[in-house]
Amino acid sequence: MSALPRASELGLIGCHVCGLVCRDTGVEGVHCPRCHSPLHRRKKASYSRTWALLIAAFILYIPANLLPIMRTVSVGDVDDNTILSGVIELWVKGSPDLAIIVFTASIVVPMLKFLALVTLLWSSHRNSGWARRQRAKLYRLVELIGYWSMLDVFVVALLTALVQFGLLSLVEPLPGVVFFGLTVVLTMFASMSFDPRLIWDGRDSDD
C-alpha cells in the first residue's frame, strides 16, 4: 500500500499552538491567522533539546526520591517522609487507595514518561519504521498525562495549607518536593520539545 502524502508535499503547515492547518507559503515569519503564533515547519534542534531536558529531569529525579518531601510535626513527634516512605505510611495507616494514587503519580508515571520519551527519541533518530502509528499515539499520551505528575506537589501544598493546628500539628514542605516539581516541569518541556513529525521521517509505506 502506497504511503499517503505528507503535509509538506501538499503545501500545508500546522500551528504548534492551536493546531490550525494553514497553507505553507514558503515565507519565513508567517503567523497563524487564528492565534497569531509564528508558524514553523519543524521544531528547531528537537533531538538535542529533548535529550538535554530529559537527562536533566532524570538527574533531578534522583534527589526527588532520596530527599524528604514533607515534614509532619505533632506533639512529641517529628516525621520526615520521602515519596516512597510517604506511600508506605499511607498504606499502613489505612489509606491504600490514596497510597496507590500517589505511588502511580509519583513513581510509575515519571518512569513511564522517561521510558516513553527515550523510546521515541531512539527510534526516531534511527528512522525506524516500527509501529509509527502506535508511537504517535504514545507521544500524545505522554503529553496528556504530563500534568497529572504534579500530584505529589499538590498534596504537599494542600496539606501545608490545611493541616495547621498551632502547637498540635504542622506540615512543612522539604527540598525533595522542589526537586520533584522541577523533574515534572522538565519532562513536560522535554515532551514539548520533541517533534512528533520525526516519527514519520523516512517512511516508505503507510504503517
CATH topology of the largest domain: Butyryl-CoA Dehydrogenase, subunit A, domain 3
Structurally, how many domains make up the residues? 2
Order of helices and strands: EEHEEHHHHEH
Average pLDDT figure: 79
Distance N to C terminus: 9 Å
Trace the largest sheet across and list its strands: 4-3-5
Strand percentage: 5-15%
Which range best describes the helical content: under 10%, 10-25%, 25-40%, 40-55%, 55-70% or over 70%?
A: 40-55%
Structural Rg: 22 Å
* Main sheet makeup: 3 strands, antiparallel
Which class do the helix and strand fractions yield? Answer: mainly alpha
The CATH class label of the largest domain is Mainly Alpha
Shape summary: elongated
Contiguous low-pLDDT stretches (5 residues minimum) are none
The total count of helices amounts to: 6
User: What's the total count of β strands?
Assistant: 5
Using the 3D structure, state the CATH architecture of the largest domain.
Up-down Bundle
Task: Give a written overview of the molecule.
This protein has 2 domains: 1-41, no CATH class; 43-200, Butyryl-CoA Dehydrogenase, subunit A, domain 3 (Up-down Bundle), CATH 1.20.140. The N and C termini lie close together (9 Å). A hairpin with a 2-residue loop joins strand 3 and strand 4 (77-81). 51% of the residues lie in helices and 10% in strands. The protein has helices spanning 46-66, 83-92, 96-125, 132-145, 151-162, 175-193; strands spanning 12-14, 21-23, 70-74, 77-81, 169-173. The model has no long low-confidence stretch (mean pLDDT 79). It has 207 residues and is mainly α. This is Paraquat-inducible protein A.
